[in-house]
Amino acid sequence: MAGLPDSSALPELSDFESCSSALYAAIEVEPSRWFADVLSEDEREGLEACDRALSSFALEFEAKLAWQRVLVGAGHSSDPSRALWEALADRIESAAAMWRRTLMQLNEHEPEISGLASWPADQALAVARELTTHVQNGGGTGSLRVIFKGRWRQFLKSVRVQGREPRSAAELRAIAQALELELERQSLARAWRKNGEPAGLPPLDGIAAPREQVLTGYSAQIRDSLGWWERRWGEIAIHLQAVGFRWEAFRQHQVAFLAPAVPFEQDVTLSTVHVRTHIQARLALVRRLGAQRILTAVRDELVRYSGPVVRSLREAVEQADPVRYGEALAQLSRLRSSAQFARRRTALLEQLGAAASTWAQAIRTRKEVHGLTTVPGDAATAWRWRQFAQELDRRAALDETTLMERLHDLQRTLRATMVNLIDQRAWLGQVRRVTLPAQQALQR
Asked: What is the pLDDT of residues 356-383, one digit of tens each?
């Protein structure tokens, strides 16, 4: 077929390179056995979304701190350590809530309980509550009952409110609240040092008071990390199901080849490495399928045309060679640009052929000097010479006798016209000299 292929039927060089890369891409594994559906180009969008989700999952997990990974592992399945971490978060939130609840009263009464350092905290709290009840029922801190109760008397000597012994029920209640908060803090400190610090959380001794307020931020992170796997893997599972990946069968098969580890570590390895490798392999096969379809359609289109440039282009497509394809595509582009000039040349030669067929044929066949890339000689001088030659030829073709006869005729006509003009101008002068009455008298 003559002519050139339509540019819209040919892929751009970048698209061709993508097709070539997809066609020759190395595929590490054979993923077909883990997919429920037959390979189809329709899977591409879902596989790309799944690959992006797995990449985001892996990057997000890699960015987590060591203690956050421990918590993610605790929330991975029915791990018994999850309850310990949830209890720690509860203790942090409970201590923070108590600190906020008692802050106003503690700030007002300024209780000091450092003198009770040798007392067990629960016993000191029990005495504080007993004294509070005693004072609320009308008793005083200096009553005989207090004097004869050595433990009460010792307690009152060991505590202070605003630098003195407490007297009122409100002051004793503030002491009790300070002891309750201290108990809560001690419970939180034991849990933090026992579970948090070994996992990589910052040492409690390095956290400024009030600690429970600072630790509130860790409480939120603890709960978020405990739910991270369930939340994020749930999203991944939806993508895997959408592309027909048989996760359970895959996991059961792959676990046998992994190093002995807890289920969480095995699932991390599977999800961030092996599953993604199989998803990418499947995606590579789908892209190869699309590349084959595109290149086959382009080859079939080029078969309809002939010519060395199109033939070179077709060979590049058949070999999926982006270098040769780029060179042939550039040549085809230059041919398209030249086609407009060729049509203009043909039209001009047709016009020239009507007046100078031999010259037009010599130019058309590029004969001798007419085959050069430049016009032979000076075109302006040649055109001027041609005009002179044509004028001389025209004059040489005229008959002298005929010209003389025509000249005499023109002279006779000129004389007759001159006589007539003189006569008319004489009468015009006469008319101008005669007055109106005289003209009227002549007309009678």
From this structure: 788 778 878 888 777 777 777 777 887 7
